[in-house]
Amino acid sequence: MMFECPHCKQRTVTLKQKYLAEKWIDVYCSGCGGRSCMYPALVVVLWFFYTWDLMLFGYVAYEKVSIGYFIVMVVGWLLLDLVGLVIPLGRMRPVAKNK
Fold it and tell me: What pTM, to 2 d.p., does this model score?
């Protein structure tokens, strides 16, 4: 599965790169070398839901000693990972080189 580079509009971004972009890692296009990232405001919202999922269901699983809530937490985490693949990549300027 390949995703579109916002610079050259070619499908050169791999699934792994897209997944890592959700974790605040920059993506470099293998075709044009353009640097991209996910839109930070959307990633912040996504990470809020990661934290909410972990805190709510993790706490309830711990307090109730229930594997069911732990499974709900893991499924919620995986669903959030899938949502992260929908967040578009944004263009970034090239890294400035020191002279």
Answer: 0.74
